[in-house]
């Protein structure tokens, strides 16, 4: 693991995706990192608390949603504002779609802008998913976060967009979904990023991703991208 500017390992807490993965599924990931994921993804609160206590882990964490922050704090993990850190050692999160070439769709929970910032700030971004997430090709809907100012004009420029009946993003953005067809995620990502009024979109480039772990029954498929 690459050491961050902080003397204490720093991590982004993802959202719960898989219930049956174990730390042995990814031996190259430091166990302290998996302890962070394990609190919500892997092994359950009681076991993770015992592991953390036994190893006297010192972990600094950031969370991309209030739900995750609350759950982590309840497990005794130190969650702090991202403004206190300029990089992360590792980010662990899920995905809504995973393409064969490593492109991802994220944002089902509406925090995709924060999740992308965390992934880009991490030395390693590890994606954990169940067997329903890999797809032959990415497809709509693609989550969007939109600025409320000039919303109708933004929607007109984008075209095929449906506003989601959901709370605002953690940063008060309007959550929507792009529903138009596409074949090239890179091309669509560039178009969405260049549209004024779009704060963020849920297309994640393979360049952000280090490892993808997919749970298939009792087996775990590992893809290494970088």
Describe this structure in words.
The chain has 226 residues and is of the alpha/beta class. The chain has two domains: 10-132 and 204-224, Rossmann fold; 142-202, Alpha-Beta Plaits (2-Layer Sandwich), CATH 3.30.70. It contains six helices and 14 strands. The strands form three sheets. A seven-stranded mixed sheet has the order 3-2-1-4-7-13-14. Strands 9-10-8-11 form a four-stranded antiparallel sheet, covered by helices on one side. A three-stranded antiparallel sheet has the order 5-6-12, with helices on one face. The longest helix has 12 residues, at 31-42. The protein is globular. The relative contact order is 0.17. The model is unreliable at 1-7 and 14-54 (pLDDT under 50).
Total DSSP E strands: 14
**Uncertain segments of ≥5 residues (pLDDT<50)?**
1-7, 14-54
Please, what is the average pLDDT? Answer: 78
Mind telling me the C-alpha Rg?
A: 18 Å
Strand content: 25-35%
Q: What best-fitting shape do the alpha-carbon axes yield?
A: globular
Question: Architecture of the largest domain, CATH level 2?
Answer: 3-Layer(aba) Sandwich
Question: SSE string, helix = H, strand = E?
Answer: EHHEHEEEEHEEHEEHEEEE
Indicate the structural class: alpha/beta
CATH uppermost class of the largest domain: Alpha Beta
Distance between the termini: 13 Å
Reported by name, the CATH topology of the largest domain is Rossmann fold
Summarize this entry quickly.
The chain is of the alpha/beta class and 226 residues long. It has helices at 31-42, 45-55, 66-74, 112-121, 151-158, 185-193, and strands at residues 10-13, 60-63, 78-79, 88-93, 97-98, 104-105, 122-130, 142-146, 161-163, 174-178, 198-201, 203-204, 211-216, 219-224. The longest helix is centred in the first third of the chain and has 12 residues, at 31-42.
């Amino acid at each position: 693991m690459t050491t961050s500017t902080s003397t204490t390992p720093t991590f982004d807490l993802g959202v719960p995706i898989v219930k049956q993965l174990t730390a042995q599924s990814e031996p190259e990931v430091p166990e302290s990192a998996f302890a962070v994921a394990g609190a919500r993804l892997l092994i359950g609160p009681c076991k993770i608390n015992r592991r953390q206590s036994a190893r006297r882990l010192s972990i600094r964490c950031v969370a991309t949603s209030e739900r995750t922050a609350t759950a982590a704090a309840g497990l005794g993990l130190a969650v702090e504002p991202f403004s206190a850190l300029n990089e992360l050692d590792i980010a662990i999160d899920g995905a809504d779609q995973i393409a064969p070439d490593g492109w991802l769709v994220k944002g089902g929970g509406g925090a995709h802008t924060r999740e992308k910032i965390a992934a880009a700030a991490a030395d390693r971004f590890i994606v954990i998913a169940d067997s329903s997430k890999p797809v032959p090709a990415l497809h709509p809907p693609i989550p969007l976060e939109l600025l409320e100012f000039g919303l109708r004009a933004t929607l007109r420029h984008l075209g095929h967009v449906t506003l989601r009946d959901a709370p605002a993003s953690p940063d008060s953005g309007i959550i929507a979904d792009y529903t138009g067809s596409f074949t090239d995620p890179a091309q669509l990502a560039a178009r969405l990023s260049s549209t004024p009024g779009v704060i963020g979109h849920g297309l994640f480039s393979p360049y952000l991703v280090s490892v993808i772990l997919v749970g298939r029954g009792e087996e775990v498929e590992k893809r290494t991208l970088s």
